[in-house]
Design goal:
CATH class of the largest domain: Alpha Beta
CATH topology of the largest domain: D-amino Acid Aminotransferase, Chain A, domain 1
CATH superfamily of the largest domain: ATP-grasp fold, B domain
Largest sheet: 9 strands, antiparallel
Number of helices: 12
Number of strands: 17
Strand content: 25-35%
Shape: globular
Number of domains: 3
Radius of gyration: 20 Å
Oligomer: single chain
CATH architecture of the largest domain: 2-Layer Sandwich
Helix content: 25-40%
Structural class: alpha+beta
Bound molecules: adenosine-5'-diphosphate, magnesium ion
Length: 358
Amino acid sequence: MIVGILGGGQLARMLALAGHPLGLKFITLEPAKDACSAAVAEQLLGAYDDESKLSELADKADVVTFEFENVPADSVTLLSSKIPCYPPANALAITQDRLNEKKIFNQLNIPTAPYRAVDTLDDLKQAMEKLGTAAILKTRREGYDGKGQARLESAADITTAWQTIAGKPAIVEGLVPFDREFSIIAVRSRTGETACYPLTENSHKRGILHSSLVRTDDPLQALAEQYINKLLNEMSYVGVLALELFQVGDQLFANEFAPRVHNSGHWTQDGAVCCQFENHLRAVCGLPLGSTRPLGHIAMLNLIGELPNINPILSLPDAHLHLYDKTARSGRKIGHINLCCKDKQQLEQQLNALQSLL
Ligand SMILES: Nc1ncnc2c1ncn2[C@@H]1O[C@H](COP(=O)(O)OP(=O)(O)O)[C@@H](O)[C@H]1O
Ligand SMILES: [Mg+2]
């Protein structure tokens, strides 16, 4: 079976790496000449909205998926008219607009931060009065890794925040005083079976995911599963879905979702029976899902901006290095390290050692 992927970055690369043992082959559509998936997948060089390339992809592949949420929803709709295409185009369209994303959470009774739609400076002024707290202004479209966002401590920051996002259609949301940030990753098959990985606690630096700690048996697991299952079923979803959550006491507030494999799920490569990449492929190819059971005490650290000396990392007994074959550049994710240990103490020791190496 040949899987087509829109996008040829590290997520496509890791999908292909997980899919080769299943006998799958891969072809990507990607405009970048130095795409890091090219080592493991055939590449069609072209834009995501190039109709002739999309047709070629549909001709060559048996099923199509995508590796990031800013591919044009129209391209996915077009592909869907020709060949099976998962996750569904509607999930992509919802997540491409933060306002629609918040609306679906609310419609499903999944709590979120209070928010208001903002189209003009005046809307922002009124919204800040209504919210009455510190807030974050976010463009409705195309934000990622903290881009397209501005924080407002008070009404005094309104003009600067508006300029920061260049007056684009936006939402402003009240700042959630969260105790921890979590994500949950789940997968739904073509026939509607679902499976969830354990909650992952995430920490960010300058808006970019820095590290993830797996929280097996967290008391909030059941609530997080309830929320993500509602989303999966509502959207008749197929594939891996990630839901970002804020924890406040015993409550969870949904922040956003990603209709794809997710950075906070990279630990599953070494720390789960079946990783998120393989499970995504199993789902989109109509195969039975694999077990999401964790295999120990697990953490993931991102390598961002520069490549450290890898020998001391590889000398740690339970470290697994994953490099993306991307040129190092400030703020760019170039790899990650998974630690999968048999007990908590070993994880803490090696995590400390790793942090001092990076
Ligand atoms: N309403 C909020 N309250 C508190 N922190 C927030 C809120 N919205 C976003 N953040 C912080 O900013 C980070 C990035 O915001 P997010 O909406 O996830 O955008 P991105 O698409 O860039 O990941 C979040 O992971 C969280 O740390
Ligand atoms: Mg996010």
